[in-house]
């Protein structure tokens, strides 16, 4: 029996019907065949993924005890299992081409996993992930919501977000103190945003880091923006802006070339 370890944020899924439904939620959106399972733990999802002939499965598990259990319980996993930290994983180990990610994500790194997905948005076509419900709510929150924030904007810029199911604490060992939700992210049609994407990420983060302030104050000092902010945004707060609004703000910024040309 694998012991759940608090330092790894482990809560092992013990409801097989839910595990089967999660594994069955992969749609091959974007034409992927390779699937990365993050944090297989005791193998609740793995048992439903390994037999599938339509996917090429790789699993990554940080916990040595869980990894040993997986090799014993699923001998066919063999070289499909990487023992290591997903946040340090070089995705080139999985070859090239489109990719899906699935997992009962360790709750203590689930947001970091989302940012890793965003960093590899050109490859990751679909994500099926178990999150704490409050994190899932942030991913799919709409402008104007109290839960709308950095992860909402950045994720929705590149992915369509859908909640698939709510999972109660009793479906895990040990039971978490919060409800959980399974979310599906599917890569949208936006190959590149219609703005400087590096500046987009930076502006969104600065705006929400001072979310109680109006944008006029929250974005003071943002490179190239200055008095170029459109009037309609001056008294608004970050949580009121859509992805398209943030793109408009980025495009209002002066470029480095503009700044040099004006002698500013």
Tell me what the structure shows:
The protein is an alpha/beta fold and 264 residues long. The chain has two domains: 6-187, Rossmann fold (3-Layer(aba) Sandwich); 197-262, Helicase, Ruva Protein, domain 3. It is 31% helix and 19% strand. It has helices spanning 16-23, 46-49, 64-73, 110-119, 133-140, 150-158, 197-209, 215-218, 243-252, 256-262; strands at 12-13, 34-38, 56-61, 81-83, 99-104, 124-132, 159-167, 172-173, 180-187. It has a seven-stranded mixed sheet, with helices on both faces. A two-stranded antiparallel sheet has the order 1-8. α7 packs across α9 (243-252). The longest helix has 13 residues, at 197-209. The protein is elongated, with a radius of gyration of 21 Å. The model is unreliable at 259-264 (pLDDT under 50).
Number of folding domains? Answer: 2
Low-confidence stretches: 259-264
Helix content: 25-40%
- Assigned CATH architecture of the largest domain: 3-Layer(aba) Sandwich
* Main β-sheet, spatial strand arrangement: 4-3-2-5-6-9-7
Instruction: Give the N-terminus to C-terminus distance in angstroms.
Output: 65 Å
The CATH superfamily label of the largest domain reads Vaccinia Virus protein VP39
What is the radius of gyration computed over CA atoms, rounded to a whole number of angstroms? 21 Å
What general form does the structure show? elongated
**CATH level 1 name of the largest domain:** Alpha Beta
Q: Quick check: average pLDDT? A: 93
Structural class: alpha/beta
Structure summary, number of beta strands: 9
Strand content: 15-25%
Count of runs of 4 or more consecutive helical residues: 10
**Order of helices and strands, N to C?**
EHEHEHEEHEHHEEEHHHH
């Amino acid at each position: 029996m694998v012991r759940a370890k608090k330092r790894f944020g482990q809560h092992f899924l013990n409801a097989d019907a839910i595990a089967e439904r999660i594994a069955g939620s992969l749609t091959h959106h974007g034409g992927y065949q390779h699937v990365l399972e993050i944090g297989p733990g005791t193998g609740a999802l793995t048992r439903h993924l390994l037999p599938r002939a339509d996917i090429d499965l790789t699993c990554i598990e940080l916990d040595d005890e869980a990894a040993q259990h997986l090799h014993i319980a699923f001998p066919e996993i063999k070289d499909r299992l990487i023992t290591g930290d997903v946040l340090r994983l070089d995705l080139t180990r999985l070859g090239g081409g489109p990719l899906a990610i699935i997992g009962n994500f360790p709750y203590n790194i689930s947001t970091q996993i989302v940012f890793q997905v965003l960093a590899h948005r050109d490859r990751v076509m679909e994500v099926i992930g178990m999150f704490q419900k409050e994190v899932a709510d942030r991913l799919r929150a709409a402008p104007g919501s109290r839960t709308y924030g950095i992860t909402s904007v950045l994720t929705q810029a590149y992915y369509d977000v859908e909640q698939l199911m709510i999972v109660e604490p009793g479906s895990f060992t040990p039971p978490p103190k919060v409800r959980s939700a399974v979310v599906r992210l599917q890569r949208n049609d936006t190959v590149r945003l219609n703005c400087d994407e590096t500046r987009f990420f930076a502006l969104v983060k600065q705006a929400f880091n001072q979310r109680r302030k109006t944008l006029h104050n929250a974005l003071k000092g943002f490179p190239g923006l200055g008095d170029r902010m459109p009037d309609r945004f001056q008294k608004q707060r970050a949580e009121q802006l859509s992805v398209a609004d943030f793109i408009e703000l980025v495009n209002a910024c002066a470029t480095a070339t503009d700044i040099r040309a004006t002698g500013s």
